[in-house]
Amino acid sequence: MNQLVYNGKTFYQKDIFSGNVHIAMSLRSSSLEVNTLSAEARDPDGVFIGFARNTPLKWIYNGAQRGIFYLQEVERVGPSRYSLYATSAIGILTEGQHYGGIYTGQTAQEVIASICGTVPFSIQNKYADVKLYGWLPVATQRDNLVQVLIAIGAWIKTDLDGVLRIESLWDGISGNINEDYMLVGAKAPETAKITQVVVTEHQYVEGGEETKLFEGTAQQGDIITFNSPMYELVADGFSILESGANYAKVSGGSGTLKGRAYIHNTREVVRDVSEAAEPNIKTVKDATLVSLVNSTAVAERLANYFQWTETIQAPIVYQGEVPGNRVATWHPYDKTGVTACLESADINLSNTLKADETLLVGFVPPKASAEYYDTMELIDEDTTWTVPDGVTSLRVVLIGGGSGGSGGASGEDGGRGIFGTKGRGKGGSGGVKGEAGAGGKIYQNNITVSPGNAFQVHIGNGGTGGNGGEAPANGSDGGDTTFGELSSLNGSRSESGFYEQTSGITYAKPGEAGIPGGNGDGANSTAENVIYKGVTYTPGDTVRGETYEGYVASGGGGGGASAGENGKDGTIGRVSTQPYATGGDGGDGGTPVSGENATIYGFGGSGGHGGGGGGGGGNCTGAEDRYTWEGAGGSGGIGSKGGNGYQGCVILYYSAPKLTASGPVMDRTGRFILDKLGRRFVV
User: Fold this and answer.
1) Do both 78 and 114 map to the same domain?
2) Rounded to an integer, what distance in angstroms lies between the CA atom of residue 67 and that of residue 89?
3) What percent of the chain lies above the pLDDT cut of 90?
4) Mean pLDDT of the chain
């Protein structure tokens, strides 16, 4: 017999006019079903008047509690008759908001705690410490909890105290629905075969452009949210009181809020499911906690689910089976025994419980995935690598050597002074900067392996930087990195490099471009400072000249600065009493330091720097040009060599085997298994 218990009062079967309980579970962890209870009950005492939302409502059948729900709606439909609607704890999470964020290795337990808030939960140990990488948007608590479940490969059940249990599904048989319990009207529809599963893997890396996120007037405590993750938030006109990757809580005021966007990299993981005449592909694109470490596991789990295409939909005498449990049952058409996993049940609250159930035939829940990569290993020298015991799958990332940067061009010589005018000759132009060396090629692949397999590893060398000078040379390419038959040659370069999310280090980025040389001072240009690594390098001084009885000798222009060296001073123009006029010589341009060698695996070398331009020679004037000598232009600084690229590396991801601990054997609920004499089994 059914009973409902609310606020200390029990409503018996005679008080329950009608009722239905819906229980369900998504076997592919792609959604969180809300279990519901709907009923009409007699309440002459009026306990439902002024009800409080989310107050517990217990369902009891034949003296045993079958579920706990939380009251959401009450409608009075008669003098003492009330219509009730209640949901499981998942329903509470549907209303709350979670502000998400960027995750860089936080554990599943930490993230779930931030999502669930005051809703109690428990999580199996094997999932609690799983690290998460990626992004969660501003969404309902329920939606973001689904994202976590997809990433870790877990499911949720609700216990009789309303606690959410995050756990794996048991692959054993928990019950039997024989032919006698299956009522008239059973059917066995079959869906079209799925041929392939495509899962998008996500990665978020700092380095995007600054963008304006808000402009206008804000009130104290306003929360500004973003559609994509941001960092380095800057406010002008009001203050940021609190912030995350998806939001900023601000003070009152008028102004703007700016931030820098994350670079969003994606990669697709493909798994074949079955063959069919026409392709039928299922995609998972927006699960943004699917990352390098778990994308293979997610794809394998979905491929396992979609291989089963037949369901049994039948009215059944309900015996307490729970969604997610496997049962032995009866095929309504083939008249043979089959195994199936319960997906949903709509239970009628009558004296004898009857349910319309949907069961997925043949489905076996996967074990906690060995495809979740919890170990990263970096190899930076030629060697032979052997697959450890217990490892069956690898994600291999090959990074080739970075290219050398190109050399910087020499500065132009300054022009010689000119007779007949004041001032000085043309200042030499600063040398052109060298271009950055490209990062090494990046190649990724997932391979199936067996313990003991050996792979020859070769690490590609970094390229050499090109020489600088009047005809600067390009740097050479880096070498290819190989792992067995795999080679970085088959990969591609990336401006953002390869972000290794477990360490937070980026590999294989281009180097920095060089710094152009400064112009020498002269008739056509004014020399300017050159800033390199926060240090300001200055042009040489343009010095004074002299005059005497109509003769003028101008001083030489200062040489242009370069990265690492100031320009040289020009020399003074002189007029003697003979009279003779000699213009001052221009200063030489600065000679820069070499481009920096890369020091991170796969990075390109920096470009060489341009030499400073020579200063213009001083002009001179006088009655006769045979008594005047124009100043010589300064020499341009020699452009510097580009930096060398750095060697490549191999990065391997795999699931390290777990040690098996000895101790008493427990069943799936955590209870000790005893023999017939009450003794524990110990292994």
Assistant:
1) no
2) 11
3) 81
4) 92
- 326 pairs with which residues across the strands? 173, 341
For residues 514 and 405, give the distance between their C-alpha atoms in angstroms, rounded to a whole number.
9
| Residue 84 and residue 99 in contact, taking contact as beta carbons nearer than 8 Å | no
Answer yes or no: are the C-beta atoms of 581 and 621 closer than 8 Å: yes
Calculate ∠ Cα 395-401-403, nearest 5°.
140
326 in any annotated domain: yes
CA atoms within 13 A on the CB side of 88: 25
Task: Give the integer Cα–Cα distance in Å for 404 and 609.
Answer: 14
Give the integer Cα–Cα distance in Å for 682 and 665.
6
Residues 226 and 282 in one domain: yes
- CA 626 – CA 53 distance, rounded (Å): 106
- Residue 381 in any domain: the answer is yes
Torsion angle of the four alpha carbons 466, 469, 471, 472, in this order, in degrees rounded to the nearest 10: 20
State which residues form the domain around 108.
97-152
CATH assignment of the domain containing 181: 2.40.30
pLDDT, position 371: 62
Paired tokens of 70: 């939380």
User: Is the pLDDT confidence value at 680 over 60?
Assistant: no
Does residue 671 fall inside a structural domain? no
Give the C-alpha distances (Å, rounded to integers) separating 571 from 429, 542, 586, 629, 636: 19, 8, 7, 14, 16
The model carries a pTM of 0.83
Residue 394 lies in a domain: yes
Query: DSSP string of 146-192?
Result: HHHHHHHT-EEEE-TTS-EEEEPPP-SEEEEE-GGGB-TT-B--BPP
Structure tokens at 40: 């009409």
Which residues, including other chains, have CB under 8 Å from residue 3's CB and lie 6 or more apart?
A: 10, 11, 12, 13, 59, 60, 61
CB-neighbour burial class of residue 598 (10 A; exposed 0-12, middle 13-18, buried 19+): buried
